[in-house]
Amino acid sequence: MNRIAHMSRALRTLTITTSLALACLAPTLASAQNYPGKLVRIVVPFPPGGSTDLLARKLGEKLAVTWKQTVVVENRAGAGGTVGADYVSKSEPDGHTLLIGVTGSNGIAGSLYPNLPYDMVKGFTPVTAVVSAPLVIVKNPNLPAKNLQELVAAARARPASITYGSPGSGTSMHLTGEMFKLATKASFLHIPYRGSAGALTDLMGGQIDLMFGDILVVMPQILSNKLVPLAVTSRERHPLLPNVPTVAESGYPDFEALSWQGMFAPPGTPAAIVEKINKDVNAALASADIQEYFVSRGFRLGGSSASEYKAFIEAETKKWATIVKASGAKPD
User: Fold this and answer.
1) One domain for residues 95 and 159
2) Structural domain span for residue 233
């Protein structure tokens, strides 16, 4: 009898616990079914007109149709993307304020800026990968090295005699150069600029020798033979440069550096809402016009699960932290 009474009490406890759990879950499920219930803001942490802004606007147009709700792009520029990222990190976690984060703001900044006002991992809910692209190691045509092996040999023979430019200290282009130095054990001299335009001009003019350039930025100069590509920084060759080897296949098999953009929500955003945003963004990325527009410009479209993207961000923050520490890189 005692055993039966004990089982009865256990059953009642389980029933009450399950009912409470379902009661707590019901509002979240209902909010996900009704999402979005108001205007959605996609925050771009850069000024209008750049690739991040363009991407957000293309996505916003698609999502507005899917959600039957207004989607606006809000530009909150400053401090290498960290101003906009911080704003979203501290926003209401209801899925109505989202961020297009980039390598710098959500992969590098935490190890570069000692007083960053947000945590790159705990300060966001990763939603999905959006786009990524490799950098291209491009040289001035007058630099004698014909391939990566000759470049590394020359840099080892004459330390710090070969220069590379970047859009600024602490940028992904600068830190990819530092990663390359560590991988090859060769010495290159970094010349920081304020933006890619100045570095590109001096590279074509012969004032500097190399650049770890955004494929979108350097592709026109490659096609016009003003710059020579030596390698791409992805693990696979790039379809726009099928004859250009990767750094990995040139003797450094673990080397990979990508410029990426992804969607993030504030921390604490309900999982059901994150899942809905993830599904709808991935569907937008798979649409023919989005694919055609961005793939033709050198981007690889994303489309990960939220958990996969969370793991990717955690790995990226650790990787870049190692590079920042080993190189001693400081922001401008």
Assistant:
1) no
2) 134-250
